[in-house]
Structures are given as C-alpha cells and as structure tokens.
Amino acid sequence: ATCGHGCKYGECMGPNKCKCFPGFTGKTCNQDLNECGLKPRPCEHRCMNTHGSYKCYCLNGYMLMPDGTCASSRTCAMVNCQYGCEEVKGQVQCLCPSGGLQLGPNGRTCIDIDECSTGKAVCSYNRRCVNTFGSFYCKCQLGYELKYTSGRYNCVDVNECVTNTHRCNLHAECLNTEGSFQCKCKQGYRGSGFDCA
C-alpha cells in the first residue's frame, strides 16, 4: 500500500487510505481529534482536549474517579479546588488536568508551565517551540513549511521568490536562501533591493 501524501499519525492501509492512531483524524491523520466534542461525552463534568488525547476534570466539590466520573465530596468542597481534587492517604490534594499545568501558590488554582522557556520542551533543530495553556507544540521555523517528502514529514525551506511572498522592489531580483530570501537591485539600479533607484 502506498500513500503518496503520507499518514502523519497513522498507518497506510491501502492506496491513499490511512488508518489513524487513536486521537487523530483527517485524510492524512494529521489533525488532532477533539474527543471533548464526541457524543457520548467522554467526561462527566469538564473535558480538556490535548494533542492526541484528552483529560477529564471535575467541578469544585467533586472528586475525579478512576473511570472518569465525578463523585461528590464534602472534603473537596471545603478545599475549594479549581479543577476538582483527589484524596491521598486521607489528605485532600487539588488536581491539575494536564502535566503542563502546576498548582499555584495557593494550592487550589492551576497555572501554566511555559515548557518553551523552561527547556522542558525538546523540538528538533529546525522547529520552534510554541507554548499553549497546559502544553506546547513544535512548529517549523519561520521561512520553512511542513511538507511530506521521501516518506516522512519535514520542515522544508519556503522559496519566497516562487511563492511571491518576498518584498523585493519592482527593479530588483529575488534570490532564495535557506529559510529566507535576499533582494538585489537589477543592473542600472542602486539600493538595498527593497528600494532601488
């Protein structure tokens, strides 16, 4: 089976037919499936979509059970947690619905961890880190775009001269460079390439 467009988060099953891994969707399995929008809903109270998965959490005063349901809890109600709580050895602890969130100084609300600035996030050399609430993702560096080449997805240089996204002067030539471009005034003109006289 060959899939010319590739299957980003899935397997090629037939001519251009992808079978997506759980949590992903689309013709090339390149889109995250929002499980929170599915019917029946996967969580009893609140649902947070994550890349390729989801997390359940409960309203204040409820405790998250192992099966994703929420049980009423007087102790949780007293602690006043933002995202529900759990009891560990008789001790009540507030929960955060994602590993990219941490309990704030008050021990009740969750604050975002910026994985990009803390160095927790590792993106390959030609990708940059983008922080999101509770998580992060890796995006191609500026001047590059995600393309399916030689059997996998890669960040490939954008040829600004061909895509016409350069800002070169009418009397200048556009020269593509790795991740960028340059402008050079044509013969008989002088200037920066963005301005030619």
From TrEMBL:
CDD domains in the cross-refs: EGF_CA
Q: Where in the cell is it found?
A: Secreted, Extracellular space, Extracellular matrix
- Organism of origin is Melanocharis versteri
Gene Ontology MF, one: calcium ion binding
The family database entries (Pfam families) matched by this protein are listed as: EGF_CA (PF07645)
Protein family membership: Belongs to the nephronectin family.
Which Gene Ontology terms describe the biological processes this protein takes part in? cell adhesion; cell differentiation
Q: State if Magnesium is listed as a keyword.
A: no
Which InterPro entries does the UniProt entry name for this protein?
EGF, EGF-like_Ca-bd_dom, EGF-type_Asp/Asn_hydroxyl_site, EGF_Ca-bd_CS, Growth_fac_rcpt_cys_sf, Nephronectin_domain, NOTCH1_EGF-like
SUPFAM superfamilies found in the cross-reference section = EGF/Laminin (SSF57196), Growth factor receptor domain (SSF57184)
Question: What are the alphabetically sorted keywords of the record?
Answer: Calcium, Cell adhesion, Developmental protein, Differentiation, Disulfide bond, EGF-like domain, Extracellular matrix, Repeat, Secreted, Signal
The superkingdom of the source organism is: Eukaryota
Protein name per Swiss-Prot or TrEMBL: EGFL6 protein
User: The EGF-like domain covers which part of the protein?
Assistant: 32-71, 112-150, 157-195
